């Protein structure tokens, strides 16, 4: 992971003169074959034990395409319970995300699968909400209670993400994703926006940040061995 | 994995986890919960000209099912009144100057209630769509609805109350 940093500095120097541009050596491209990594988020299961009113479970699959691009698919499920004095309901939902990661580190060798990356996602979730019981309190006129009917609805959001994966031992990767999420159809469930949507976060916020910590297992094949 | 990669991984995870908020308590409600009807007292000078009219010791009293509750103000020309979320009608009594013992007018507002979800922190409230406003005419000449949508937006007046011209 260190060599590319030095290589980047070299590139900057040579860019100072137009004549030197042609002298910049191409970065070495390795024939790395294929990699399919399957992983689980280990951060939310820990949070689930500490937070009683919501839970989430997430997993991911990413597949190396080429030129340091990875196809990324993620999914999971979760739920929440709101039991405030003036508002009570429960939700459950599943979700899926599809997108890509682009590694911004250069490889040290054909065995180097460590990466820092940026990526984009489109995500879809389906939320089922129980009837919502509410009380509108007014000290002057009196209070009134009611029920917002149960309903199911779709949630669509987009994400920008950055993160890293480091190979701890052969095939076992660990790392994190930091995500900025942007709700795209919040108006369609404005009658009672859920406190928590697994995979997204606070349903009554148009933009949220989130964190995942992953453990992945990678399967690799198809790399051509160098002839000695 | 190099030592540098391992150090970066551990450092970033510790940093990110420490920044992550995992509070489960209800967030404080930072937006207005109630929608108030805003009224402005004016007096006609000519058919096209009105001036804001403050009365010395204005007094409003809500006539609710559980009894009456009054609010004494210092001299002013604008007021915010609440509407009942439990009925489609609210009645307020208005006296322009309690010290002088002026006659009391009755103002009745009729409206449609609209249930409104604010947020999980604030819960639900009601917004109102004014249908009519009626009044007796001891001090008040007439009332006019200038904006029928009563929401948490505090920047808009909804009712203009015309006080009788001075004799």
Automatic annotation (TrEMBL), chain A:
<dbReference type="Pfam" id="PF19515">
    <property type="entry name" value="DUF6048"/>
</dbReference>
<protein>
    <submittedName>
        <fullName>Uncharacterized protein</fullName>
    </submittedName>
</protein>
<dbReference type="InterPro" id="IPR046111">
    <property type="entry name" value="DUF6048"/>
</dbReference>
UniProtKB/TrEMBL annotation, chain B:
<protein>
    <recommendedName>
        <fullName>Lipoprotein</fullName>
    </recommendedName>
</protein>
<dbReference type="InterPro" id="IPR045607">
    <property type="entry name" value="DUF6452"/>
</dbReference>
<dbReference type="Pfam" id="PF20050">
    <property type="entry name" value="DUF6452"/>
</dbReference>
């Amino acid at each position: 992971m260190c060599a590319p940093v030095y290589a980047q500095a070299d590139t900057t120097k040579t860019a100072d003169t137009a004549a030197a541009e042609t002298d910049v050596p191409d970065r070495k491209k390795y024939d790395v074959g294929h990699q399919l990594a399957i992983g689980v988020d280990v951060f939310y299961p820990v949070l689930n034990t500490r937070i009683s009113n919501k839970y989430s479970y997430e997993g991911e699959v990413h597949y190396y395409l080429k030129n340091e691009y990875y196809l990324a698919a993620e999914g999971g499920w979760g739920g929440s319970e709101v039991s405030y004095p003036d508002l009570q309901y429960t939700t459950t939902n599943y979700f899926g995300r599809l997108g890509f990661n682009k590694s911004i580190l250069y490889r040290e060798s054909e065995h180097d699968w460590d990466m820092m990356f940026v990526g984009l996602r489109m995500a879809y979730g389906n939320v089922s909400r129980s009837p919502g019981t509410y009380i509108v309190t007014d000290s002057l006129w009196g209070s009134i209670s009611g029920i917002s009917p149960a309903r199911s609805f779709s949630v669509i959001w987009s994400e920008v993400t950055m993160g890293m994966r480091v190979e701890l031992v052969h095939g076992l990767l660990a790392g994190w994703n930091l995500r900025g999420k942007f709700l795209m159809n919040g108006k369609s469930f404005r009658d009672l926006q859920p406190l928590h949507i697994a995979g997204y976060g606070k349903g009554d916020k148009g933009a949220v940040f989130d964190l995942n910590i992953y453990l992945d297992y990678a399967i690799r094949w198809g790399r051509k061995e160098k002839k000695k | 994995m190099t030592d540098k990669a391992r150090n970066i991984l551990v450092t970033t995870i510790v940093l990110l986890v420490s920044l992550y908020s995992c509070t489960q308590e209800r967030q404080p409600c930072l937006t207005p919960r109630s929608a108030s009807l805003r009224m402005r007292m004016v007096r006609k000078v000519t058919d096209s000209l009105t001036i804001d009219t403050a009365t010395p010791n204005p007094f409003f009293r809500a006539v609710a099912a559980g009894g009456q509750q009054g609010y004494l103000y210092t001299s002013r020309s604008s007021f915010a009144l609440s509407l009942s979320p439990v009925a489609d009608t609210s009645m307020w009594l208005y006296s322009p100057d309690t010290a002088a013992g002026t006659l009391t007018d009755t103002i009745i507002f009729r409206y449609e209630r609209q249930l409104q979800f604010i947020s999980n922190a604030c819960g639900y409230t009601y917004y109102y769509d004014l249908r009519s406003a009626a009044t007796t005419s001891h001090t008040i000449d007439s009332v006019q609805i200038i904006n029928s949508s009563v929401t948490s937006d505090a920047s808009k007046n909804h009712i203009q109350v015309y006080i009788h011209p001075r004799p």
